[in-house]
Amino acid sequence: MSRRIEIVEVGPRDGLQNEAVVLAPEDRIEFVRKLEDAGARRIEAVSFVHPKLVPQMAEAETVMAGLPKDAGRSRIGLALNLKGFDRAVAADCDEVNVAMSATDGFGLKNQGLSVAQQVDMLGQIVERTHNLSGAGAGPKLSATLSVVWGCPFDGEVSDGQVAAIVRDIAALGVREIGLADTIGVGDPWTVRRRIEAVRAAAGDATLRLHFHDTRNTGVANAYAGVEAGVDVLDASCGGIGGCPFAPNATGNVATEDLVFALHRAGFETGYDLDALIETARWVGGKLGKAPPSKLSKAGPFRPAA
Question: What is the mean predicted confidence (pLDDT) over 230-247?
């Protein structure tokens, strides 16, 4: 099997944003560089949110300034609103990922915006991106839809509900749409069904999947997504992190756990598993705890000669 699966590393953003220990910008820069040495080519490096709300993501501009441009790598900045987008552009992010929500409940808690207001906001961001692109300076744009498999405030989320929002996002011309299980309540069967439901709504846009391992289904859900034909997955080195606006949300599926499963099955990712494990242990040391990933504990599989 030679199919390539692209893994977008989100540890420096989604991984660190819910940790009790706040890392200094120089440590966050080193984390990004270690991940790139391990094979990451797209990294969600920073988030442009108010530091009073998410102190772990303060000084995003300092982090970006410490990461010189590299033609082979893309540093992504997360934005929740127009101000965040403008900051990401000013910081010279290669990509901007706009966070949205599948429910009004989560959108109002996370951004103070209903779903309809978020779609309107995205439309304004798309317009600004087009204006920048005309001047040759526009970043790539993606959108990630949170709580696609369940919301801590509004409860269950339906296939039709998600498909309708994906259709609105695709109609704006966004070329990559992420589907996020923010609180880790998805299961492999529902993952496959939801992908099938939104595929037509997404049109030519690439689908990307973002799974949290809150209830030990992260790798299984990623498997279901790959089997359903999705080639782009988010993951967090060490399995660290979570969403500060979602009660009891733990970290993303661990990059090294996902890479191990994919490599064993014959898929290509471009990642060095040993380097990922070393980086997971390094960031765990910086955070003062063992990372929750399984591979950081068990190590790779090397049969005796």
Answer: 90
Q: Is 237 known to be catalytic? A: no
- Could you tell me if 21 and 44 are in contact, meaning their C-beta atoms sit under 8 angstroms apart? no
Q: How long, in residues, is the chain?
A: 305
* Marked catalytic residue, from 93, 151, 237, 243: 243
- Residue spans of alpha helices (H) in 150-272: 159-171, 188-202, 218-227, 255-264
- How is residue 256 written in tokens? 């090294």
Checking if the pLDDT of 246 tops 90, the result is no
- Give the separation between CA 199 and CA 201, rounded to whole angstroms: 5
What is the rounded average pLDDT of the residues 268-287? 98
Work out the angle at residue 259's Cα, subtended by the Cα atoms of residues 190 and 60, and round it to the nearest 5 degrees: 90
The model's confidence at residue 210, banded by pLDDT at 50, 70 and 90, is: very high
Contacts of 135 (CB under 8 A, 6+ apart): none
Write down the pTM of the prediction. 0.96
